[in-house]
Design the sequence.
């Protein structure tokens, strides 16, 4: 007979020493004769708080009960739903302090204080968002996951979304009326123009009646929606057809309504086509700021052939290919097609390779590697570059510009490179996700033996 699990907790008062990469505050507490780190969400550095701490977890996790001595940086959150919705975990922190804390986290992990670029705007900035949808018992819920839950938190408005996306988010429950099941919806902006319209990429597991597709078609015809792409498991499609597999990831042929192609205005001020449902930065304005800086750093760092890894739809490629030979490597087929279209629209040439960037061999003549990996980082790439550096002059290691969305995995990969002799030339943080603990970082690495490199 299984014994019931008894959670051991203690209530304590503590001062928050720092904020962690995951957003929670960290306090060092004496618990049962042992000094332990306790992670408490919803607090700011320097605050004195009272928290209920789960002693069974390592590291220990605390639930905030009271803020006894608030920080001067604490502000009233601009969203009325912040206590329920899990989307924005730093809304109680003033935007300028968010930038300082992000820089402090990256500086601690990499050992060098970064230059910080402020957010272009702190609200209504998101031009791409993924929301969770659940339809059961005649009710459709749409939202980010609620705090400490895997259930969507329905809100009347989302203050960080671009207005066009927020209108589509609010309308989505009505469009899906009569559905049953669960899914994820990615919202983005369609082709530049006035007005900008949202486009929808929906992955659905469950039943979608034909009326859903009719509503989406009417929304596209009226201009309420730019277009939609729907992958549905066991869905009723127009004309009585049955759609796809019960697993939406296996439903190879989506229903398309209107033009579901997402776009951003690129860093060169020209439209940049994206892959439907694919990756792009969360903010169009912030992306332009970051991409221009990467382009500038690349020009300053090294001439000659460039390999760009995890190239996506060519967001950086269209800048890099202006004045050098570029091989852009990306695994997603639709993103590769978008990258080729973006290059052609600008009269640029680059070789776009559909392959796993983590395993792609870097040609010997390469003088610059630019990479923008997902959250898990690029350990295999860092190890390959480190091995090449270890071979000495015959291997002639390339310079590196590394764009990262996760400071801990960036720090891991940076250690691999610097242990092999690479030298950090610059670290810069970008406020791409205001109101949250997430930050984008760019690190420039000089290869071993480069003239003028600083040890």
Sequence:
């Amino acid at each position: 007979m299984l014994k019931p699990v008894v959670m051991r907790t203690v209530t304590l008062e503590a001062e928050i020493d720092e904020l962690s990469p995951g957003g929670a505050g960290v306090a060092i507490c004496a618990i049962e004769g042992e000094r332990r780190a306790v992670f408490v969400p919803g607090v700011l550095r320097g605050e004195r708080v009272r928290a209920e701490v789960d002693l069974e977890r390592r590291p220990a996790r605390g639930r905030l009960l009271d803020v006894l001595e608030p920080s001067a940086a604490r502000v009233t959150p601009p969203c009325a739903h912040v206590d329920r919705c899990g989307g924005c975990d730093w809304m109680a922190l003033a935007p300028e302090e968010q930038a300082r804390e992000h820089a402090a986290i990256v500086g601690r992990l990499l050992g060098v204080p970064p230059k910080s670029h402020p957010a272009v705007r702190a609200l209504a900035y998101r031009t791409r968002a993924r929301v969770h949808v659940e339809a059961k018992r005649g009710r459709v819920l749409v939202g980010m996951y609620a705090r400490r839950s895997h259930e969507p938190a329905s809100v009347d408005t989302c203050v960080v979304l671009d207005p066009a996306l927020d209108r589509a988010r609010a309308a989505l429950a009505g469009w899906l009326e009569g559905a049953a099941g669960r899914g994820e919806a990615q919202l983005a902006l369609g082709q530049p123009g006035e007005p900008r319209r949202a486009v929808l990429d929906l992955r659905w597991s469950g039943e979608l009646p034909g009326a859903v597709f009719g509503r989406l078609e009417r929304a596209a015809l009226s201009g309420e929606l730019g277009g939609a792409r729907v992958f549905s498991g066991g869905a009723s499609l127009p004309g009585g057809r049955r759609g796809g597999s019960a697993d939406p990831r296996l439903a190879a042929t989506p229903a398309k309504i209107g033009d579901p192609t997402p776009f951003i205005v690129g860093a060169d001020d020209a439209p940049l086509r994206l892959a439907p449902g694919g990756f792009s930065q969360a903010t169009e304005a912030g992306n332009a700021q970051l991409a221009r800086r990467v382009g500038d750093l690349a020009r300053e760092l090294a001439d000659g052939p460039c390999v760009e890894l995890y190239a996506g739809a060519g967001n950086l490629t269209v800048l890099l290919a202006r004045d050098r030979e570029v091989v852009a490597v990306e695994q997603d087929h639709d993103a590769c097609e978008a990258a080729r279209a973006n290059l052609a629209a600008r009269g640029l040439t680059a070789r776009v390779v559909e392959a796993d960037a983590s395993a792609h061999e870097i040609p010997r003549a390469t003088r610059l590697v630019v990479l923008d990996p997902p959250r898990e980082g690029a350990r295999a790439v860092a190890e390959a570059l480190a091995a090449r550096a270890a071979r000495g002059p015959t291997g002639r290691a390339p310079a590196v510009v590394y764009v990262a969305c996760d400071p801990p995995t960036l720090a891991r990969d940076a250690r691999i490179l610097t242990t092999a002799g690479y030298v950090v030339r610059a670290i810069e943080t970008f406020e791409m996700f205001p109101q949250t603990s997430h930050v984008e970082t760019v690190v420039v690495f000089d290869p071993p033996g480069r003239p003028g490199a600083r040890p």
In short: The domain at 128-264 is CATH 2.40.50.1070 (OB fold (Dihydrolipoamide Acetyltransferase, E2P)). The chain has a mean pLDDT of 91. Residues 39 and 61 are 5 Å apart (CA to CA).
